[in-house]
Amino acid sequence: MPWSRVLRGLMLTMLISAWSESAVAQDAGAAATETSENLQKFLDMLSFVSQRNEQYYRITNPRGVDEARYVPIGGIDQYITIRGEDRDNPVILFLHGGPGDATNPWGYLAFRSWLKYFTVVQWDQRGAGRTLGRSGAGIAPTITAERMTQDGVELASYLRQSLQKDKLILVGHSWGSILGLSMAKARPDLFYAFVGTGQVADETRNYAVAYEALLKKARALEDRTAVEELLAIGPPPYPDFRGWSVQRKWSNLFEHADLFISGMFGAAMSAPGYTFADINDWVAGQGLSGSQLIPQTTKLDSKALGGQFAIPVFVIQGAEDFTTPTSLAKEFVTSLRAPHKEFVTIPGAGHFAVFMKSDDFLRELVARVRSFATKR
Question: pTM for the complete prediction?
Answer without folding.
Answer: 0.90
